[in-house]
Every structure is written in C-alpha cells, then in structure tokens.
Design a protein that fits this description.
Blueprint (H helix, E strand, L loop, with lengths): L5 E7 L12 E6 L5 H9 L17 E6 L3 E5 L10 H17 L3 E9 L6 H12 L4 E6 L6 H15 L9 E3 L8 H22 L1
Parallel strand pairs: 2-4, 2-5, 5-6, 6-7
Antiparallel strand pairs: 1-3, 3-4
This protein binds guanosine-5'-diphosphate.
The site of guanosine-5'-diphosphate has 18 residues, from helix 1.
Length: 206
C-alpha cells in the first residue's frame, strides 16, 4: 500500500465521539515507550503525525487518523506506565475497554512488543483480554535494529512459544524498526489485503 494521504481527525476519551464514517479501523496499542508513535510515523511516512513521547503516559486519548481517505489508524494510550496514579489507571482502563467493546468499525488491534524483552505479563494479559472479547489482533515487534538477526530470531521464537501455551494458533506478527524503516511494507500490505477482504465480503452481502 502506498500512503497517499495521512491526516489527524480527532482525539477524545469517549468512544461515542469517535468518527462515524463506516471505514475499517486498526488500533495500535502497547506499553508506554514501546515505540508506538515512531512506528505510526514510520508507517505513514510522516515525521510528526503521532507525537513521540517526551513524557510517557501523557497521551491519554483515543487518537484517530485517516489514511488514504479509506481507513482509520487509531493511536491508543500506552499502558503500564508506573508513574500513572491508580485512579487514572482505572479511568484509562474504562475508556479503553469501552473502545474495544463498542467500536463497531474496529477490524483489528496491533499489540506492540519491544523485541528486546521477554514476554511480559501485562502484554500477555492484554492479549488474553482481546481473545475473550473476540477482537482479532496481530503483534508488531518494535526496535528490531537494537538486536542482531540471531537474537531477533531467538526472541521471536521464545515469544511464539509463550503464546502457544495459551493460543492454538499464532496471531500474524511483524518485525519492525522505525529507525531503520523495517517492516513498513509488510504491515501496510497486511492492512491493505484485510481491507480488500472486507470490501469483498461487503459486496457479497449487498
Ligand atoms: P511510544 O511512547 O510508544 O509512543 O514510543 P516512542 O515512539 O515515543 O519511542 C520511545 C523511545 O524509543 C524514543 O526514544 C524513540 O526514539 C525510541 N524508538 C522508537 N522506535 C525505535 C526503533 O525502531 N529503534 C530504536 N533504536 N529506537 C526507537
């Protein structure tokens, strides 16, 4: 997929106020500092579409971007940042769960995982939550430039083994580096293929 246009639409903390156009939507979520803003900028060929975080935990909103005027990219707040208070964590959880449980257009969530780390309970629990709610998800491993190819292979394999303890099949996954611009085509082509499938299903139904 070529990015012809990418523009910010709206930020809010209320799923009811999210854009109403019935376009397929892909949500990006992960721990604070995982490299989500950098990834969104890399995917869309924009330097500042998503704000890279000087202050993690600050961007506590559902941010909609429209891509090529035919799908929404959603930048969700980072989770698991230790310095956020318990009360604001609760509030955060509520509007995020509202988003996941009510957003009709949501096609898929991409869970971002720093490729350097061992599987973390918070990420695994989040994927379990998505599974329980029957929300399809994929994994995007970030910061691949920080490891050598052998270590990438080892860590991805370890992650897959961990997932297979809970899941019958592996989700689609992608290895990316925003600094080295790795994985852009794979992620965008996956989204494009999924959008085409949805379009075909719609045509068959009408
Ligand atoms: P966010 O909090 O998840 O949105 O993360 P950011 O995109 O703000 O990135 C957090 C930190 O990781 C920043 O210092 C980025 O420069 C760095 N970072 C993000 N992506 C990459 C990457 O692909 N490679 C490397 N080496 N650093 C990255």
């Amino acid at each position: 997929m070529d990015i012809k246009s990418a523009a910010f639409v709206i930020s809010n903390s209320d799923v009811a106020k999210c854009p109403q156009r019935p376009l397929p939507e892909y949500a990006f979520i992960g721990r604070s500092n995982v490299g989500k803003s950098s990834l969104i900028n890399m995917l869309t060929n924009r330097k500042h579409l998503a704000k890279t975080s000087g202050r993690p935990g600050k961007t506590q909103l559902i941010n909609h971007f429209i891509i090529n005027d035919n799908w929404f990219l959603v930048d969700l707040p980072g989770y698991g940042y230790a310095r956020v208070s318990k009360a604001s964590k609760k509030k955060f959880q509520k509007f995020i769960t509202n988003y996941f449980e009510q957003r009709q257009q949501l096609v898929m969530a991409f869970v971002l995982i720093d490729i350097r780390h061992k599987p973390q309970p918070i990420d695994l629990e989040f994927m379990t939550y998505l599974g329980l709610k029957e929300i399809p998800f994929g994994i995007i491993f970030t910061k691949a430039d920080k490891l050598k190819p052998k270590a990438i292979e080892r860590n991805v394999e370890a992650y897959c083994q961990e997932l297979l303890k809970t899941w019958e099949a592996l989700p689609p996954y992608f290895i990316t580096s925003s600094t080295k611009r790795v994985g852009q085509e794979e992620v965008l082509d996956f989204i494009e293929a999924t959008n085409q499938e949805i379009e075909q299903l719609r045509k068959q139904e009408s």
